[in-house]
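Sanity check

After download, print the first record. It should look like this:
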Amino acid sequence: MTELWQLTKLIRSKNAGPFELTFDIMFKDGEGFRAALKSGRLSAELFARVYGVPLDKVRFFVLEPLLTIKVTIPRPIFSGELKDGDMYGGQFHGPLVRLAIE
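Expected structure tokens:
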């Protein structure tokens, strides 16, 4: 079984302002990009479930010419709040790295 990291050259998360997170998933080639999309594993529903946000708040973009998937969600805790453990949003991508792609 292939994991997402094996198909990509970059998986990252970062702030999109203090109230949102954005995820960039950039693939090595078209074959891996299409395999990930065909698997149905990368979806707005996955992000809603994994990050505990309402599905209607997940913005999911497929940028085929760039072999990239971009997703934006509301931050569970605003950047800089007392309970914020990742002020820059750079560690939220962790659960995606080992996502199985069939």
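If your output differs, re-run the checksum step. Summary of this record's structure: Residues 2-8+27-82+91-101 form one domain.
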